[in-house]
């Protein structure tokens, strides 16, 4: 694999958790030409990373949150990660009409690291209604050498007034067969306080994924809400989602990732088998159902084919 | 074990699913003396069953629903069940002041049946606020000879205007490691339509159990709501909860219980191990935390000690 990138997901902002809104109101200019396949193929790895980190279609606190989260991962975990080795036309892609665009950045963990890989991404799509669909995501998968949960953050925004938030530390084990696991990572850590906080906001309504698999894979402390109505999505992300996402990420990095478990061979096999199902299902069912509709079959096949090498291995 | 009771949970009403409310408005007179330990010890099995089936502290559609559900189980499954062998002072019990009372009726499956046991119960408690807490429940556990889900129905009513409803077919397997199980019992059956219906009622709000274990053990189609406010609990139970509970019970009896799976030895061991944890946790954590507070340690020890023989075996 390639050498470690020194600047993966490097933020052009130096954002604290509680930032003045003036710092995050800027929206970088965005040139569609950057997304053509030939253009992407000529870009260097650093160029592609910078373009990914622009999150060009979201602004304000949504953009600042993602930059902050990804920068934090880079700062604290970067030395454990390879550089992104996705082909340029998988790091940036669009459909034939240019109405849907996406960018992915994937960094595998070093052989000595407990991180399997970290994937950041964004998708922008102009909906027939005239509104914009913007999805930003960070997911981090660990190796079977540790049983600490995976990390998942998804923000799905439709227009300026509607947001779906999914934030979870995804369990690696069946919480019924392994009650000690439930206790260690979810009960003793009081992770549920974040869910209580976000679900208790007057602007938040519980969100039920239409996928029973998604509901089953998440932890009992998962935050799944749709946000809208009374206050703006901008305010809710800034005042509530951002601090909570950072706290959960910090907990995940500090408490989960650094705590090396004594995982025996049998347990490793179990984790590898369960993780394998989770990752394959994510590509086949989750992405596999939406990517062809958004980007057409050819682009979807190209992107998902490459991702399968990481998710399906 | 004893012979099969011919009249377990026999209803004194012949209730259809859509009943005239005049049929269910009667509330039987209730004598406290029936609950004294010495009195209970002298009652015959039929007497105790009849008293259990009175559900003396709930009325209207709540009572009628429970009578209907339990009568349905008796009619369709009674020939597969032993008679209730709980000691009389576990079939009926109360605390020292008489402010909390309960009744349990447990029937084990015959050796030839796939039913492990069926437990019906009710608890009544006068709260310090002056309101009455009434819990009615039916849970049915299956043997490891089938992998069909368990059945769970809980109605927790505080006063006339507040209800918590839990209705679920509880999975026997980890839904991530066994995606075919998720498909067979939850996706292909469209069980989620009932959750969508109940959760969509304007009077219903999602209910999150404070227990992470309870959240984890339930299926992704579980109905967990608190009901109150706009319409009366009475109307919501009659028009929505009752029909849905009957449909889920009928599905469980018809589709799950009657479909004998080819469960191999290894799978049986897995099911037995997972079921064992579920049942032991129910007694130790769920009932074990609430019974001493409601009934005092002596009564709790007596009742839970007997239940442990069924749940912990």
TrEMBL record, chains A, B:
A GO molecular-function descriptor: red chlorophyll catabolite reductase activity
Family annotation (Pfam families): RCC_reductase
GO annotations of cellular component type: chloroplast
One biological process term in Gene Ontology: chlorophyll catabolic process
InterPro entries attached to this UniProt entry: RCC_reductase
UniProt-recorded name of the protein: Red chlorophyll catabolite reductase-chloroplastic
Source species: Striga hermonthica (Purple witchweed)
